[in-house]
């Protein structure tokens, strides 16, 4: 299906943009977690967001959820794994489904704009973002899995049913996976190595594991992995004051554009991006 | 007295900056109306500010007021009429009092960054922003007064006691001044003219009035009138993504930096400016 605008990310920047684009009667496909930003959710007290005095992150997310629902906005809880530019706009792969949009807003959060060393080079050559898409390729093989959130544990379990051996790094505290063929890594993946295809990974603590594939189950894929020619400024997406990136029709807002990592800044940038999107069409 | 930071403006941008600077233990002098932004106050419904669903402007300002009070912030309800750079920072004239600050944030709202034609050229040569400062100079003379808000009506009355004739333009709807020597103008001042000193004004509807002085009683003075070398971009203060202006130590945020004129954008920029201010010292 074709939409006016695709928004990637359901944190404050995405929410701010979505509310505004909806008011401007744009058709929107909005990708991200319907649990909204985990960074907001885990904030104990937010003391500097004007209009909502001294609020806990969970309460603020609850207000956001109500606001989203009242505005008639819907979240498509799929992970975007690839965005390509087309003649008319953008083609987006969300889990296994294809979506099209004229304009796109990246609001992917604090995830580094850059991917792991080797990630982009070996994408499709052993590196995958989607267990259900590519898991079957690794029957009885060895794989590494970087799991960024508890909500992807079912994908890890699915992979463990297929693979002979799974080296798992869980980037959250309460990992409950306890399976005979799953070995928990003590530190995250530093690099993915291989010539033609993935051959092994190294971890931040310096260990090396031979693997046939690497599954990166992140709440969001690094923007430069999503889009090929996206210009970055250090670890962030480069934007101007209109929140335009170097790719025409592609905007960015929120933590992914740089510091300060603040709700107010994200909300402001989402608003500006939405207005630029409306103006530019 | 000397402060770390002076903030000019009590709208959403100023509020956002003040909350953040306070959290960073900066000493703040905060100029503006303690009624906060009239633009917010007069908004019937705000549907696109994340975190505060469908709120009336008055209610939002009430929340802001509570938040300001809870944060222990104080507003100095004086009009800033001049800012000069000093070796250590800035010297600010608020009504008739002098304040000093190391850094400064301009959050002056939608008022055009540029002043009226003739305003800057004739400032101090018949043009004044302060009735109590300069009114005595116009005893038994003719003056024009541009009054932007009801709260300045007492200043108009004071001027009417001194002057022989007052040509008044009230830029609000419920002007209650009814004095024998005050003539209400049907349209605002277009230009202030004169060679060495103010000689006459023209109005938007094309009339000309001979006057000895012009009092401009605005909730805020055009930023370029406040500061001499401030770089503008059209009608707005020119800033970069860090909200820095061309003058070192001087930042701007909110409507005064350009469109979209939105609470979310103002709040975001105030937040960024505060973080830049903290980083730069």
Order of helices and strands of chain A: EHEHHEEEEHEHEEEEEEHEEEH
Largest sheet entry of chain A: 6 strands, mixed
Radius of gyration of chain A, whole Å: 19 Å
Rough outline of chain A: globular
Strand content of chain A: 25-35%
Range of helix content of chain A:
10-25%
Give the class of chain A from helix and strand content and strand pairing. Answer: alpha/beta
Average pLDDT level of chain A? 92
Q: Span from first to last CA of chain A?
A: 19 Å
How many E strands of chain A? 16
Oligomer: homodimer
Number of helices of chain A: 7
Largest interface: A-B, 40 and 40 residues
Provide the low-confidence segments of chain A as ranges: none
Q: Strands, helices and their partners?
A:
Two copies of one chain form a homodimer.
Chain A: E1 2-8, H1 12-23, E2 28-31, H2 38-41, H3 57-70, E3 80-85, E4 90-94, E5 97-106, E6 127-128, H4 131-134, E7 142-147, H5 153-162, E8 165-170, E9 182-184, E10 189-193, E11 200-203, E12 208-210, E13 213-217, H6 223-226, E14 232-233, E15 236-237, E16 250-252, H7 263-280
Parallel strand pairs in A: 1-2, 1-5, 5-16, 6-13, 7-8, 7-13, 8-9
Antiparallel strand pairs in A: 3-4, 4-5, 10-11, 11-12, 14-15
What does this structure look like?
The structure is a homodimer of 281-residue chains. Chain A has helices at residues 12-23, 38-41, 57-70, 131-134, 153-162, 223-226, 263-280; strands spanning 2-8, 28-31, 80-85, 90-94, 97-106, 127-128, 142-147, 165-170, 182-184, 189-193, 200-203, 208-210, 213-217, 232-233, 236-237, 250-252. In chain A, helix 1 packs parallel to helix 7. Chain A contains seven helices and 16 strands. By secondary structure, chain A is an alpha/beta fold. In chain A, the strands form four sheets. In chain A, strands 1, 2, 3, 4, 5 and 16 form a six-stranded mixed β-sheet that branches. In chain A, 23% of the residues lie in helices and 26% in strands. Chain A starts with a strand and ends with a helix. At the A-B interface, helix 1, helix 3 and helix 7 of A face helix 1, helix 3 and helix 7 of B.
